[in-house]
């Protein structure tokens, strides 16, 4: 089912302030930024090994990331796991009684399909599953 950790999403107040630390001090490979309109977020991507770090900056006050920042401040927002078939994975999880935030996939960054599991079933960690290159 899960093939690897795709990325860790970290909510930040400002990409302009945060990017230099990850790129220059930590030496991560900076892959650029992308705005994901549906999620109301601008994302900066860093490659580390087989996985990525995604810095998330809200583009609207009513975005999930803006709400997270207001409640928690900057920090880890979610863990994302890659799957080969997101639709089959969601169907299986739903059949197993897993509480889903998204019962159908939606568009994510890097032309991926994403869906979130409710943190009440994942030990308090917002968990994303994603299918890449779709």
Tally the helices: 3
- β-sheet strand percentage: 35-45%
Largest sheet: 8 strands, mixed
Q: Using only CA atoms, what is the Rg?
A: 15 Å
Describe the structure.
The structure is a single chain. The protein has 134 residues and is α+β, with helices and mostly antiparallel strands. It has one domain (2-131): 2,3-Dihydroxybiphenyl 1,2-Dioxygenase, domain 1 (Roll), CATH 3.10.180. It is built from 3 helices and 8 strands, in the order βαβββαβαβββ. It has helices at 15-25, 64-72, 86-95; strands spanning 2-11, 29-36, 41-48, 51-58, 75-83, 106-107, 113-117, 127-131. The protein has an 8-stranded mixed β-sheet with strand order 2-3-4-1-5-8-7-6. The two termini are 17 Å apart. The mean pLDDT is 95.
Quick summary:
This protein has helices at residues 15-25, 64-72, 86-95; strands at 2-11, 29-36, 41-48, 51-58, 75-83, 106-107, 113-117, 127-131.
Q: Top keywords for this entry?
A:
Glyas_Bleomycin-R_OHBP_Dase, 2,3-Dihydroxybiphenyl 1,2-Dioxygenase, domain 1, 8 strands, 134 residues, 3 helices, globular, 22% helix
